[in-house]
Design brief:
Blueprint: H1 10-19, H2 26-39, E1 46-47, H3 49-53, H4 56-59, H5 64-71, E2 74-75, H6 76-84, H7 92-103, E3 111-112, H8 113-124, H9 130-143, E4 151-152, H10 154-162
Antiparallel strand pairs: 1-2, 3-4
């Protein structure tokens, strides 16, 4: 599946299913492939940042620039694997791992106070001052047993999400 062929073989579909831990059935894989081909306007077999930004829901997301670092250049298998974290069938660990990658923008495997502040800034823009963001985050971290100097690892994110009522299930439009 290097350069995007016009159709998927049964082998391709099964390979993608394995790659995404069977979170999508065969028909969903075919629909996602059709959407992938629509986005891959240059038919190179991967989706560029510009092509991702053509999706209005993606472009309007306040975390779009962070997400672009994660999705730029994805081939079809990796595109489906990325989307699988949004599936209702995805595990807490899969969802937490995606969110962790959003916060861990430098990819060092740790999320610091400043990493979280940057995401909060992206999300709140001018609705909150830097001081307000820092105060809220400091309070939140203290309530969770952390300090400003703490750093969070993926396991911490998994624990936080496992103990919360947060939902990350979205309907993935495939048409």
């Amino acid at each position: 599946m290097g350069n995007a062929p016009s159709t998927l073989t049964q082998y391709d579909i099964e390979e993608v299913q394995e790659h995404c831990n069977k979170l999508f059935n065969q028909q969903e894989i075919v629909s996602l492939y059709q959407r992938f081909c629509q986005l891959d306007r240059t038919a190179k077999g991967f989706i560029s940042s510009d092509e991702f930004m053509s999706v209005p829901e993606f472009a309007m997301n306040p975390l779009a620039q962070r997400l672009l670092k994660m999705v730029d250049g994805l081939n079809f298998k990796d595109f489906v694997a990325f989307l699988s974290a949004f599936s209702a069938k995805a595990s807490i660990e899969q969802k937490a791992a995606l969110i962790f990658r959003v916060y861990d923008s430098d990819g060092n495997g740790k999320v610091t106070f400043n990493d979280i502040i940057e995401v909060l800034s992206d999300m709140t823009g001018s609705f909150m001052t830097a001081e307000q963001r820092e105060a809220v985050l400091t309070q939140l971290l203290q309530e969770a047993g952390y300090t400003r100097d703490s750093y969070l690892m993926l396991d911490d994110f998994v624990k936080i999400f496992a103990n919360s009522d947060m939902k990350m299930d979205v309907e993935i439009p495939v048409d």
